[in-house]
Amino acid sequence: MGSTGTVLRELRGAQKSAKGVSLYSRYVNRPAGRVLAAMAYRTGLTPNQVTLVSALFTYSALVAVALVEPSWTLAVLVYAALAIGFAFDSADGQLARLTGRGGPDGEWLDHVVDCGKLLLVHTAVLISFYRFGELPSEAWLLLPLGFQLAAVVTFCAGLLREHLGKAAASARGPSWAATRAVPVSRVRAVALLPADYGVFCLVFLLLGAPGAFRAGYAVLAVVHTLFLAAFLAKWFRELKVLRAG
């Protein structure tokens, strides 16, 4: 087992493509995940165990949102746990590529945890609104449901786009896929920032000011819904092109 520095260098060489990744994930979450992956490697954790550590941090934070009265202390603790959980979510894949221990079971577990996270985060906000929100109107209770719908549809549609695209590209061979490779774009990386889960987690720093939290959460809900519409149109066009060959 090499030194931590050696492991970090090997992890840098085992990174996924930056295509379609926001600046936050590229320059904050992936580097943080790389450090956590190196620590996990040094302590002998498996990629699936790292996935479960990610779930522990994330789900614990969201249960706290639902059950604990909002405060500035809660805001900091929840954000820290969500950010750490997200970094571990990056670390599991990096560790799998480093050790060659990745597989369909690990990918399945990672997606299950991610799907549960998307369902629980907005459910937790809904419960917090109901229990502690002192809402101007009960209509606010519909907001987390709408945000949840946009988040889950984006997640599921994105996964389907990825897997259907890989299947079509594989059927046509690597040379066909290479002609349709899209270069990494910094403009796109900036544009994707509002849709990044790590940026979304920042809104929980406003938990100590319920009105500000509601406003920030509502803005993000609108932004994510607009992104969903754009993504669905883009992915549908891309799949039509793949069908046409």
TrEMBL record:
The keyword Membrane applies. The chain crosses the membrane at residues 139-160, 189-209, 215-236. Keywords: Membrane, Transferase, Transmembrane, Transmembrane helix. Gene3D superfamilies: 1.20.120.1760. The keyword Protein biosynthesis does not apply. It comes from the Bacteria. InterPro entries: CDP-OH_P_trans, CDP-OH_PTrfase_TM_dom, CDP_ALCOHOL_P_TRANSF_CS. Belongs to the CDP-alcohol phosphatidyltransferase class-I family. This is CDP-alcohol phosphatidyltransferase. It comes from Streptomyces badius. The lineage of its organism: Bacteria, Bacillati, Actinomycetota, Actinomycetes, Kitasatosporales.
